Amino acid sequence: GSNVLRMSSGIQIKPKTTIQKSKPSSPLPCSPEPATKPQPKPSDKLNPKTIDPFGDHSRPPSAFAAIYAKGGIPCRLMHGSVKHRLQWECLPETVPFDPLLVTLAEGLRETKHPYTFVSKEGFKELLMVEGAAEKAIPLLPRLVPVLKAALAHSDDEVFLRGLDALVQLSAVVGPSLNDHLKHLLTNLSRRLMDKKFRERITIALQKLEQYGGKVS
Q1: Confidence band of 214 (pLDDT split at 50, 70, 90)
Q2: Compositionally biased, Pro residues: which spans (predicted)?
Q3: Is residue 43 included in any domain, yes or no?
Q4: 2-13 tens-digit pLDDT
Q5: Number of structural domains the chain divides into
């Protein structure tokens, strides 16, 4: 930030030069070196304010946060007085599942608001559109590893979001998920030992069995 200070003090010394004319059009703190900038880096587009209001800028944003910041997720959180809901920029049924459904599944591993809500709710609402099954089935080979990562996550909330998403997916794609379930069941059985998850996982397994036929 030192060059910003240097430039602003330079302006005060020469009040009548042309620099002052351009001052309103290019506010200094935002662009310390106008014109000479090389191709903008993708990271320049990510305004830290939109990523993390609490100021942890040292960690690069996750892929989901980066896509969200660039407007790549076609839904936004609407703050309601009673409960939050999603607002879609276009009808969810017109949104291509590839890659959005996979991106939303990736977002299940987020631990920050609003990504947590947007990814969970977006995943659910996308699966509710007409024809979701045939759009989601071809994506299973990519969705399953992403859900597995959520189920293997150390954060309890992330795990439960992954579990809910898995059940929602199973309800839509039915038996098509069966071949992939073996990759996920180890993560579920690991948490089954934990009392606080036992009931949720048992119910989820019953639903998976109900939607997909027998889960061995």
Answers
A1: low
A2: 26-41
A3: no
A4: 555 555 444 455
A5: 1
